[in-house]
Amino acid sequence: MVTNGGRPTAGPKRRSKAVRRLVITLVVLLGLLVAADFGAAAVFEHEVSKRAQKQFDLTDHPSVKVGGFSFLLQALSGEYDLVTVDAKGVPVNQLRDVEVHADLRGVQAPLSDLVSGSLTEVPVREVVGQVKVKAADVTRAMAANENQVIKSLTNLTIDPVSEKTVATKPAEDAPAEETPETADVEGSTAGVKLCGTADIAGESTELCVFSIISLTENLISVSPKRIELRNGEADVNLPPAIQRKVLPFFAVKLNPGDLPFSVTPTSVKVEPGVLSVKGKATNLVLGK
Strand runs (DSSP E) across 167-273, as ranges? Predict the structure, then answer.
């Protein structure tokens, strides 16, 4: 192409090729940065996993994930916003399927130590630890009871309810199904509804035990308060005197083990299918 002055200028095709080359170069560089980010994150997660395995006394490495935007940017600063650690299927005493979870905030690991492999200790500003006990383990603990009805309990479910619901006897004409409610927030105690099927006098009977869970010397204590029975389509109301004799058989204490990183347990919580213990600690060192 020639201008009015007679000098050639770059045509549209040449400019289009230059733009394409620039775009391709940027895409390649971005891909390399993303790959480097993932690769560096994988190395860091493996290092934290090894130390967590030692402190949890686990047979396998737990899962570790780094949160926040761009691992490399966090690595350059030497501090990571959030690192989560998860271990599943952990055996603890009579429990066989405990889940361990920890949120680590303000994790300090200099990039130079990470690259050189000399990372030995990892200071952490705050740790929130949690252990979860599933319905199958609660059933297993109850099966140790000498009462044959409790031993026959199957299909156990765990659901959160408010402590008010635990303490309130339903009205005679109340509908069988409960309306949805908001459970209490986590604290030193929480309401729970444990439902299952038991063999009572040769009949398959659905029962629900409304209880309060609490922390007792780092154990999860389940204190039953009232029971509801259903045989077929009919609800069975147990007289208070009988309830007082039956309820103690449903009391159980669960030892979920220590919280991760020696965090002191401070609260309990009920989630669908799970009883959990939580705690928080500050200014810890991972790897000591």
Answer: 189-200, 203-216, 219-231, 234-236, 252-254, 265-271
119-170 pLDDT, tens digit each:
777 888 998 989 999 999 988 888 777 777 777 788 899 999 999 999 887 6
Q: Which of 51, 79, 44 has the alpha carbon at shortest distance from 65?
A: 44
Two structure tokens written together for 255: 């030892």
pTM score, whole prediction: 0.73
Ramachandran area for residue 253 (φ above 0: left; ψ -120 to 50: alpha; else beta): beta
Write out the E strands in the chain: 63-66, 79-92, 95-108, 122-134, 154-161, 189-200, 203-216, 219-231, 234-236, 252-254, 265-271, 274-286
Residues 210, 161 contacting (CB under 8 angstroms): yes
Write the DSSP symbol of residue 43: H
- Compute the distance between CA of residue 6 and CA of residue 2 in angstroms, rounded to an integer: 6
